[in-house]
Amino acid sequence: MIKIIRKIAILLFTLSIVTIIAGQAGLFGGKRPTDLGLHDGKLKAPLSESSNSISSQATLHPHSDHHIIAPLTYHGDGKGAFVKLTNIVRNMNNATVIAAEPTYLYAEFRSRLMKFTDDVEFALDEQAGVINMRSASRLGKKDFGANRKRLESIRAAFKS
Length: 160
Prior knowledge:
Blueprint: H1 2-24, E1 53-55, E2 72-73, H2 78-90, E3 95-100, E4 104-110, E5 117-125, E6 130-137, H3 146-159
Antiparallel strand pairs: 1-6, 2-6, 3-4, 4-5, 5-6
């Protein structure tokens, strides 16, 4: 019995090491989407059958309540608020800004150990006085709350 337990433990340890090596090699990063950006003033819709994305524009698309997050609100100059947001994102750990325009920001966030990649977008809507935001994991159907936690930490930094 102890021999079987030992073999199972060795197998699990080996699989863990192989998985970590695969992650560090970038095998879990996924492929960068080609359909991001603003389309008719909207960010990409969350996948209704998946719980690995959230959007402040989720109500404009088929969604579940899980997909909904409030946009960032600001007072005063919208472009100035967007510059502040861009600087916050640029200074976050594991973030790479891919596109930074006056009213649109796209960044990739990679998890430290496994190098999973999430795509994060922001769009300034000066007429509504908000910055819409979207965060989605490239792989899998669940994110264990990582996208929401990230956007809420950005919200907290933006408010301060």
